[in-house]
Amino acid sequence: MLKEYDIHALSHFVGMVRGEKGAQEWLLENGYRELSEFWDAYFGIEKSFKWLLENGHKHLAAAVDAASGEDKAKLWLIANGYRELAAIISASEGNKPAVAFLLNSKYKGWVGIAHDIHEYNKKKKKGFWSIFNFGNPYG
């Protein structure tokens, strides 16, 4: 089962996703290193991924893999009691049933995080592909 985080930790995690100054430092200074390492691992920082594995946060490492499209990782999350974390990853991909699942659970605070990760991914994808955007010829 996913650890329950207080509203301050979740709001600083959202801040970190949004790139707000000081959010990551707050998480580190207040005992939420795993959230900081999760976000760094999400960016492909191998050292953070290894930290998650070596410090009892295999579920967060699996979430990173699931977010990268590894279906086996998402299945591992569900099979090992991290259904909510699998739903967070699915919600961050725009999956409406996953959002509804989270809204009906005690993990409502994660819906905002999933939304911000989704928005971050859209901007990242748009930023890269926008150099090839020649406009909609049918518009």
Total number of domains: 1
Q: Report the structural category.
A: mainly alpha
What is the percentage of strand-forming residues? under 5%
Shape: globular
N-C termini distance:
48 Å
Low-confidence stretches: 127-139
Radius of gyration: 16 Å
Number of strand segments: 0
In this structure, how is the largest beta sheet organized? none
Order of helices and strands: HHHHHHHHH
What topology does this entry show?
Blueprint: H1 7-17, H2 23-29, H3 33-42, H4 46-54, H5 58-67, H6 71-79, H7 83-92, H8 96-103, H9 109-129
Helix pairs in contact: 1-2, 1-9, 2-3, 3-4, 3-5, 4-5, 5-6, 5-7, 6-7, 7-8, 7-9
Describe what this molecule looks like in 3D.
The protein has helices at residues 7-17, 23-29, 33-42, 46-54, 58-67, 71-79, 83-92, 96-103, 109-129. It is globular. The termini are far apart. Helices cover 68% and strands 0% of the residues. The chain is built from nine helices and no strands. The longest helix has 21 residues, at 109-129. The protein has one domain (7-130). It has 139 residues and is mostly helical.
